[in-house]
Amino acid sequence: MADIVIAVHDLVKKFGDFVAVDHVSFTVQRGEVVGYLGPNGSGKTTTMRMLLGLLQPTTGMARVLGFDATRETERVRPLAGYMSQKFALYEDLTVRENLVFYAGVYGLGPAAYRPRVKELMALIGLTGQEGVRAGQLAGGWRQRLALGIALVHQPQLLFLDEPTSGVDPEARRAFWDIIYTLAEQGTTVFVSTHYMDEAEHCGRLGIMNQGRLLAWDAPSVLKRTVVPGAAWDVLAPDGVPLIPLLEALERTPGVWQAGLLGDHLHAILAPDVSETGGLEAALAPYPGARLEPAEVTLDDVFTVLAKRHAEGA
Questions:
Q1: Distance CA 43, CA 92 (A)
Q2: pLDDT tens, residue by residue, 227-284
Q3: Cα–Cα distance for residue pair 33/175, rounded to 1 Å
Q4: Are strands 18-29 and 188-193 parallel, antiparallel or unpaired?
Q5: Which of 108, 110, 147, 174 fits a disulfide with 103 by CB distance 3.0 to 4.6 angstroms?
Q6: Burial of 75 (0-12, 13-18, 19+ CB in 10 A)
Q7: Among 252, 285, 209, which Cα is nearest to 21's?
Q8: Confidence (pTM)
Q9: What is the per-residue DSSP string for 44-81?
């Protein structure tokens, strides 16, 4: 049990008649990068806030770093860092002044925070911008500063709530480089996201929808075990309308699900279908349309799980 840093059992949070988190259970091992994937309103932030003791659960149990997250909140907080969706930067303070202020909040004196702030500036890539006011930083750089503040007290466990929401792809990639640097240094990272490509970076992944934890495993395992059959991409030349072709695929026997994926269509076959004859017949009225074998995606995994959940399976 010493390597388990988060243990959640049957956690429930209700707001009146609304069930925000519905009987969720999972564990997180020391040093993991764990993703918590789901659409807005699926219960991700509510779960995090209960783990940090910021919300009281309706029922259930959560232990964080060996402590009861409900009764021993003050023992958890010095050991955990939290970057919320809208982190409170002081815009009139400089980058360094923000870091120093929050270091003081965590009880660090000058002898401790001076080397720590210098180290963080290098880690988050803001060296040379110490004197820039936080309000003048672009979105991606503000997120880096917010991360630095969450790390200023060297937490063992880091909670990141959709940390890259609203930033450009390059900034998102740089942010994930930092996350993996932290993991290599021994920090456990619990990160929520609604980006499928980010979820691929996680060692294990929890998939949330409508308050329910639908799956919890490595992304590669989920893609192998959740999706029922083979995946195929359907590519059509310019001028061939995709929506009628999609409707044709959805009517095709043996196609478990089909949908748009960028500039082409993506189909999943039923588990007992190994031939593509039905797909080829559906494509016949559309000159130039062709099939290509495809990789199962996390979008497929989420869609399958959400469909099963809706059907009560």
A1: 33
A2: 988 999 999 988 888 999 999 999 999 898 899 988 999 999 988 887 787 889 989 9
A3: 13
A4: unpaired
A5: 108
A6: middle
A7: 209
A8: 0.90
A9: HHHHHHHHTTSS--SEEEEEETTEETTT-HHHHGGGEE
b/e map 16-33, b = 16+ CB within 10 Å: eeebbbbebebbbeebbb
> First CA to last CA across the chain, in angstroms?
32
Bridge partners (DSSP) listed for residue 80 = 157
Domain spans of the chain, in order of start: 4-223, 228-295
Provide the Cα torsion 286, 287, 290, 296; round to 10°. Answer: -20
Q: How far is residue 283 from each of residues 55, 57, 218, 254, 276, measured CA to CA in Å? A: 53, 52, 35, 14, 11
The token pair that represents 179 in the structure block: 């996350």
Q: Are strands 59-64 and 33-37 parallel, antiparallel or unpaired?
A: unpaired
**Is the pLDDT reported for residue 159 higher than 90?**
yes
**d(Cα 131, Cα 109) in Å, to the nearest integer?**
21
228 exposed, middle or buried (CB, 10 Å; 0-12, 13-18, 19+)? Answer: middle
Helix H or strand E segment including 10 = strand 4-15
Domain covering 228-295, topology:
Alpha-Beta Plaits (3.30.70)
Is 297:199 a contact under the CB 8 Å cutoff? no
- Give the tens place of pLDDT for each residue, 179-200: 999 999 999 999 999 888 889 9
Decide which of 3.10.20.310, 3.40.50.300, 2.40.50.140, 3.40.50.2300 is the CATH code for 4-223.
3.40.50.300
Question: H or E segment at 252?
Answer: none
